[in-house]
């Protein structure tokens, strides 16, 4: 990959406006720390963040569940393709939003400009205190669990390994944007290389059986109702390809963001979709769907076909690399939201300060790392905790993508071009709305608790932050940003 530090336009881009034109002077002064973050990231890094974060353990577990439920190779690959196309529709919208508002924070910025500061604060409140630390801790614990397959550990040793991974990668990202992005790019490249080898060797070794794809469409005996299986498969695939929007959180540090961010999103999501389809296909080629023992065993069975008794070890190594890349990308992107919150006066001002030597949002990164480390030690069931907040999280995502309608109505279609509009937002919002409805109806109690916690942010906003850094209504977007 190219050396990002050699770009002569980096210094010039570093002075690009990082605040909303037309905001009052108090708001501009509060945003000064955000403007100090230099634009030194290019297309390779932006695409690598997507690949590194999105391709995690789900690529090895989701296909197995889909095989058992759908019972047909054609349906499985079709679900991956459909959800990949939906994600590309969302990426086209987020790319247009990021090009229009290339400031750190991503979804937070779009919510603030489209719906106001209160809604943006609620998103930041949820992200900073619950979902981001929870996801980070869950990924780190998953990393330690697969590491324990290679090096036997006690339960407390696994928790210690999870905390060590969080703190080490937080330190990497604090030590400099170029250093942190270099680690993310390296892990993404290794991940793609290893999975590429797995795909090529899986088909090229001729150790599988093409009869596993026959019949291609007919479902295997014992499969449940197709409609229910498709719904379950789409939900699993939706979350397996999720996280691509996090690259918009580092938009304030990307060079030539109007060109780079849309290209990175489409390139990253496209690469992820292709990899998921090909890995699923090679697993189906290697393992008879009728012989699948369980979600976690599917990849191991495929590994044993390819590498013999060492297959489990090889696949565990691949999973460790995949999850390590996800963790590094999470710790790079997520703290930019808290930093942007504080810069906008929606969180405590010291969090907006950047490290004087490394030029990174060190305090924001430490918040995420500290909360995630605590959760990794004390929490037993991450699925239960995150299950309470999945509906609010997806709801905020849908609102962010739907903001393209708000901006085009407010600013005019010519001032806010969106590729494939209106097809692109529809491609993403229709399945997203379906996922939201199914999740809410499937567990209304969890949904109610999650939304209740989000709404607790309203009194916090009114008491602490309502009068800071703005008038509480959307500002005009700076078209020259």
Distance between the termini: 27 Å
CATH fold-level label: Amino acid/polyamine transporter I
Please state the second-level CATH architecture: Up-down Bundle
Q: Give the beta-strand count.
A: 0
- How much of the sequence lies in strands comes to under 5%
The CATH superfamily is Amino acid/polyamine transporter I
Give average pLDDT, whole number.
84
How would you classify the helix and strand content by structural class?
Answer: mainly alpha
**Rg calc:** 22 Å
Order of helices and strands: HHHHHHHHHHHHHHHHHHHHH
Model regions low in confidence, pLDDT < 50 over at least 5 residues: 1-35, 470-481
How many domains make up the 3D coordinates? 1
Helix content: 55-70%
Shape: globular
Task: Give me the number of helical elements.
Answer: 21
- CATH class bucket: Mainly Alpha
Biggest sheet record: none
Subcellular location: Membrane
Transmembrane segments: 41-62, 74-99, 120-149, 161-179, 186-206, 226-245, 266-286, 306-331, 362-379, 385-407, 419-441, 447-465
Organism: Aquisphaera giovannonii
GO cellular component, one term: membrane
Please describe what this structure looks like.
- This protein has 481 residues and is an all-alpha fold.
- It has one domain (43-466): Up-down Bundle (Amino acid/polyamine transporter I), CATH 1.20.1740.10.
- It is 69% helix and 0% strand.
- It is built from 21 helices and no strands.
- It has helices at residues 10-13, 25-30, 32-35, 43-54, 58-70, 73-100, 107-115, 117-150, 155-174, 177-204, 226-240, 257-286, 295-307, 311-333, 335-343, 362-378, 382-387, 390-411, 423-442, 444-455, 457-465.
- Helix 4 (43-54) crosses helix 10 and helix 13 (295-307) packs across helix 14 (311-333).
- Residues 1-35 and 470-481 have low confidence and may be disordered.
């Amino acid at each position: 990959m190219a050396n990002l530090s050699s770009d002569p336009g980096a210094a010039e881009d570093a002075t690009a406006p990082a605040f909303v034109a037309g905001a009052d002077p108090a708001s501009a002064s509060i945003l000064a720390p955000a403007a100090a973050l230099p634009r030194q990231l290019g297309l390779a890094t932006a695409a690598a963040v997507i690949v590194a974060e999105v391709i995690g353990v789900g690529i090895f577990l989701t296909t197995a569940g889909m095989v058992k439920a759908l019972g047909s190779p054609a349906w499985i690959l079709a679900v991956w393709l459909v959800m990949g196309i939906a994600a590309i529709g969302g990426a086209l919208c987020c790319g247009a939003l990021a090009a229009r508002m290339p400031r750190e924070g991503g979804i937070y910025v779009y919510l603030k400009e489209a719906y106001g500061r209160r809604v943006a604060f609620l998103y930041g409140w949820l992200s900073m205190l619950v979902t981001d630390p929870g996801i980070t801790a869950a990924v780190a614990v998953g990393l330690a669990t697969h590491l324990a397959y290679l090096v036997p550990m006690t339960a407390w040793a696994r928790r210690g390994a999870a905390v060590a991974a969080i703190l080490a990668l937080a330190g990497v990202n604090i030590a400099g944007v170029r250093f942190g992005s270099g680690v993310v790019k390296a892990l993404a490249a290794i991940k793609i290389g290893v999975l590429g080898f797995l795909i090529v060797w899986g088909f090229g070794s001729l150790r599988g059986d093409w009869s596993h794809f026959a019949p291609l469409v007919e479902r295997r005996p014992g499969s449940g109702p197709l409609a229910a299986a498709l719904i379950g498969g789409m939900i699993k695939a939706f979350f397996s390809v999720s996280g691509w929007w996090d690259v918009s959180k580092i938009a304030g540090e990307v060079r030539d963001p109007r060109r780079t961010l849309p290209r990175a999103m489409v390139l990253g999501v496209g690469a992820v979709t292709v990899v998921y389809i090909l890995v699923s296909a090679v697993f189906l080629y290697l393992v008879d769907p009728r012989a699948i023992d369980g979600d976690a065993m599917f990849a191991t069975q495929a590994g044993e076909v390819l590498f013999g008794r060492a297959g489990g070890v090889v696949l565990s190594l691949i999973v460790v690399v995949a999850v390590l890349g996800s963790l590094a990308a999470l710790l790079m992107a997520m703290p930019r939201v808290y930093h942007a919150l504080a810069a906008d006066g929606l969180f405590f001002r010291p969090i907006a300060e950047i490290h004087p030597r490394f030029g990174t949002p060190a305090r924001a990164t430490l918040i995420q790392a500290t909360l995630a480390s605590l959760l990794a030690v004390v929490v037993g069931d991450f699925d239960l905790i995150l299950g309470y907040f999945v509906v609010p999280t997806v709801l905020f995502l849908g609102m962010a993508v739907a903001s393209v309608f708000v901006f085009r109505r407010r600013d005019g279609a010519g001032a806010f071009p969106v590729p494939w509009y209106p097809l692109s937002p529809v491609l993403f919002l229709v399945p997203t709305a379906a996922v939201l409805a199914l999740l809410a109806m499937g567990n209304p109690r969890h949904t109610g608790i999650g939304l209740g916690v989000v709404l607790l942010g309203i009194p916090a906003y009114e008491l602490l932050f309502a009068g800071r850094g703005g008038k509480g209504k959307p500002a005009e977007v700076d078209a020259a940003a």
